[in-house]
Automatic annotation (TrEMBL):
Entry keyword annotation includes Chaperone: no
InterPro entries cross-referenced by the UniProt entry: P-loop_NTPase
UniProt-annotated stretches for the region Disordered: 71-100
Swiss-Prot/TrEMBL keywords: Kinase, Transferase
Species assigned in the record: Rousettus aegyptiacus (Egyptian fruit bat)
Alphabetized GO MF terms: kinase activity
Taxonomy, superkingdom: Eukaryota
Stretch forming the signal peptide: none
Protein name per UniProt: Adenylate kinase 8
Protein backbone atom coordinates (compact mmCIF):
# COMPACT_ATOMS: atom_id res chain seq x y z
CA UNK A 1 0.00 0.00 0.00
CA UNK A 2 1.53 3.32 -1.03
CA UNK A 3 0.95 6.79 0.42
CA UNK A 4 -1.82 7.60 -2.08
CA UNK A 5 -3.98 4.62 -1.13
CA UNK A 6 -3.20 4.46 2.59
CA UNK A 7 -6.10 5.36 4.90
CA UNK A 8 -5.96 8.88 6.23
CA UNK A 9 -5.65 9.32 9.96
CA UNK A 10 -7.01 12.68 10.98
CA UNK A 11 -6.37 13.69 14.59
CA UNK A 12 -9.70 14.19 16.42
CA UNK A 13 -8.91 17.83 17.30
CA UNK A 14 -8.67 18.87 13.62
CA UNK A 15 -12.38 18.58 12.71
CA UNK A 16 -13.31 20.17 16.04
CA UNK A 17 -11.03 23.15 15.31
CA UNK A 18 -12.54 23.48 11.82
CA UNK A 19 -16.07 23.52 13.16
CA UNK A 20 -15.30 25.85 16.06
CA UNK A 21 -13.68 28.41 13.75
CA UNK A 22 -16.12 27.92 10.83
CA UNK A 23 -13.23 26.94 8.53
CA UNK A 24 -15.36 24.57 6.46
CA UNK A 25 -18.04 27.19 5.77
CA UNK A 26 -15.45 29.86 4.91
CA UNK A 27 -13.66 27.56 2.48
CA UNK A 28 -16.92 26.39 0.89
CA UNK A 29 -18.13 29.98 0.41
CA UNK A 30 -14.76 31.07 -0.99
CA UNK A 31 -14.70 28.11 -3.40
CA UNK A 32 -18.25 28.91 -4.55
CA UNK A 33 -17.27 32.51 -5.29
CA UNK A 34 -14.11 31.36 -7.05
CA UNK A 35 -16.06 29.04 -9.34
CA UNK A 36 -18.76 31.65 -10.01
CA UNK A 37 -16.30 34.42 -10.94
CA UNK A 38 -13.54 32.21 -12.43
CA UNK A 39 -10.79 34.86 -12.28
CA UNK A 40 -7.69 34.57 -14.48
CA UNK A 41 -5.48 34.52 -11.39
CA UNK A 42 -7.28 32.76 -8.52
CA UNK A 43 -4.74 33.47 -5.76
CA UNK A 44 -5.29 37.27 -5.55
CA UNK A 45 -9.04 36.61 -5.78
CA UNK A 46 -8.89 34.29 -2.76
CA UNK A 47 -6.74 36.75 -0.81
CA UNK A 48 -9.18 39.56 -1.57
CA UNK A 49 -12.11 37.33 -0.61
CA UNK A 50 -10.71 36.77 2.86
CA UNK A 51 -9.79 40.44 3.28
CA UNK A 52 -13.22 41.72 2.24
CA UNK A 53 -15.87 42.80 4.66
CA UNK A 54 -18.04 39.69 4.54
CA UNK A 55 -19.77 37.56 7.15
CA UNK A 56 -16.98 34.99 7.16
CA UNK A 57 -14.13 37.34 8.03
CA UNK A 58 -13.63 37.73 11.78
CA UNK A 59 -14.30 41.25 13.01
CA UNK A 60 -12.44 43.11 15.74
CA UNK A 61 -14.16 45.67 17.92
CA UNK A 62 -12.00 48.09 19.87
CA UNK A 63 -13.69 49.62 22.90
CA UNK A 64 -12.30 52.17 25.29
CA UNK A 65 -12.86 55.56 26.87
CA UNK A 66 -12.16 58.78 24.96
CA UNK A 67 -8.47 59.47 24.28
CA UNK A 68 -7.46 55.88 25.07
CA UNK A 69 -5.74 55.35 21.70
CA UNK A 70 -8.45 53.47 19.78
CA UNK A 71 -7.77 55.36 16.54
CA UNK A 72 -4.03 54.78 16.90
CA UNK A 73 -4.58 51.06 17.35
CA UNK A 74 -6.79 50.86 14.26
CA UNK A 75 -4.41 52.87 12.07
CA UNK A 76 -1.45 50.79 13.26
CA UNK A 77 -3.29 47.53 12.54
CA UNK A 78 -3.97 48.63 8.96
CA UNK A 79 -0.28 49.30 8.37
CA UNK A 80 0.69 45.78 9.43
CA UNK A 81 2.87 44.52 12.23
CA UNK A 82 4.42 47.19 14.38
CA UNK A 83 8.16 47.53 14.18
CA UNK A 84 9.91 49.20 17.06
CA UNK A 85 13.48 50.07 17.80
CA UNK A 86 15.13 48.87 20.97
CA UNK A 87 15.12 52.42 22.33
CA UNK A 88 11.36 52.78 21.97
CA UNK A 89 10.79 49.36 23.55
CA UNK A 90 12.91 50.43 26.53
CA UNK A 91 11.03 53.74 26.76
CA UNK A 92 7.65 51.99 26.65
CA UNK A 93 8.68 49.44 29.26
CA UNK A 94 9.64 52.23 31.66
CA UNK A 95 5.98 53.28 32.00
CA UNK A 96 4.24 51.89 35.08
CA UNK A 97 1.81 49.08 34.36
CA UNK A 98 -1.92 49.70 34.97
CA UNK A 99 -1.82 47.31 37.94
CA UNK A 100 0.81 49.47 39.70
Amino acid sequence: MDATTAPHRIPPEMPQYGETNHIFEMMQNMLQQLLIHQPEDPIPFMIKYFQEDNDNVPKIIILGPPASGKTTIVSASRRGPRRTSRASVRAESSFPSPAS
